[in-house]
Please model this.
Amino acid sequence: MYNQYEPSIGNWYHRLDTGTQFQIVALDDDEGLIEIQYFEGDVEELDREIWQELELEPMGAPEDWSGPMDRYEAQEYGGGGETPEESAAATSINEDAAERQGDSDRGQ
Model:
């Protein structure tokens, strides 16, 4: 069975064969690759041939889809996989530690 859906970044689909949900997160037209991220957070790369064979149904974004996407974007941009909240907390902790070290150095 061939699906008639043209992949587009940001679109969500339900795989009828596995029951999983995913979003298209990247397209590489030169290589003919489609990068998808499942709702649970796993990322997979598909070629166009495989894409056409998938049994898909378009869907709207799930209610709480942002958690896995936050991690994907952080990893993509060199953030080490933290959510923005985790990254901000780590930065705050590091700044506090540096400030305490500076106070300690001045007191000696």
